[in-house]
């Protein structure tokens, strides 16, 4: 980066002849978390609603953790950032760049808690969106700090809405519609449950709890869009294309899906559909099962098996004929059988769409980023299919079992090929085992049994044949290398 580059800001924006988009709507939305996903999804949707409906509202964005580094960047750019949507949509190539202007303010609550309290007093605020990763919706005991920001995300939500409740003397019309976008099951219910626990810890009044029940709505949601973030490798080309430098530029696919489970009143207040957005006010469970099993599942498998094969991105993984046929066969032959009959057709269509999304020629979705916390993701995204397949078909799904062996092997190759990012206790457990591993099948099986018993918690079905199959595949990978072992598996050897 050279000094001469001009950054995106309102001046640069005006010079580009875009001043008409600098609209002056009131802040109607609070957002907690300011990462790539929430900006490339929620903030983009609000931008679209402001353009195409009578929504007319802006976002006040609050940094989620003391580690956050985005607020100064947003402030420097007058809260503007560029979103580039690239991919294939209905057979057509889409390359769309937009300067998103839906954020009005970005606040660091650790240095400016007073601003957050003032924000809670604003009449027009109606919605709270968040994305704090799966780690954010978690209960942490902390004292009620009153004059400074709570550390946890639920703590911030409680402090903010409590201040609003007090300021408006419990006015029933001043509650908020809360839409967490973290990818955990029943995210709205879970956030509310934790908030109530925080309220109990902080000894806040029963009437506040009643106000939350009557005036606030916590919606469950499901989000879907691949947002790889800033493409570092395209720094110079992007500057040439845009004429400015934007540290917060985000690349995403055009595909998007937002499913919201909540009362009809929420739908009427958020004109997503009027803006032409793919948003459904519906039950989440069937969308969720398809997405977790058929999109996040193959991502997790590709991440470990691709990295073990020296492949760096999702697209390269899908272009590799061996990896592609492995993943495709795993989905069709081993995961589809676990999907209810009335959903199978929808699932087949979803698989075709998913491969198109993975093959997006304009995204570099890095496997190393997807591999973050692979161990927990395997448990949530692939293990249920192994278990359900065994219950229904009465044997091990060979590819999913191989993928589990590859995951264990992934931790063995740690530090020689890539840096694993996972929970410390997971990394320690593997390091400990591999430091003493004597290369015998017996010790491997004992380790696998312990792992599955301890972490993948099942009922007490007899799983010895599964442990043995995992150990066999592991030893094959060790002896032959991942690709020859895969080839042999696909050939049926
Ligand atoms: N990037 C994608 O393609 C994509 C797609 C769908 C869903 N998601 C979901 O979005 C999440 C974030 O992805 P991203 O690409 O925006 O990542 P990011 O690193 O750009 O942003 C992460 C955000 O979460 C906050 N955060 C991190 N740890 C936290 C904690 N312990 N408590 C509170 N806040 C915390 C950060 O401050 C930041 O605001 C993912 O975990 C995933 O569940 C991502
Ligand atoms: O974001 P993660 O780390 O939970 O999972 C990696 C990807 O599978 C995920 O980000 C998908 O791209 C996303 O879920 C698509 O909507």
TrEMBL record:
Keywords: NAD, Oxidoreductase. The keyword rRNA processing does not apply. One of its GO terms (molecular function) is mannitol-1-phosphate 5-dehydrogenase activity. Residues 27-271 form the Mannitol dehydrogenase N-terminal domain. InterPro entries: 6-PGluconate_DH-like_C_sf, 6PGD_dom2, Mannitol_DH, Mannitol_DH_C, Mannitol_DH_N, NAD(P)-bd_dom_sf. Residues 284-423 form the Mannitol dehydrogenase C-terminal domain. GO terms for cellular component: cytosol. It comes from the Bacteria. The keyword Oxidoreductase applies. GO terms for biological process: mannitol catabolic process. NCBIfam families: PRK03643.1. PANTHER family: ALTRONATE OXIDOREDUCTASE-RELATED, MANNITOL-1-PHOSPHATE 5-DEHYDROGENASE. This is Altronate oxidoreductase. It comes from Lentibacillus kapialis.
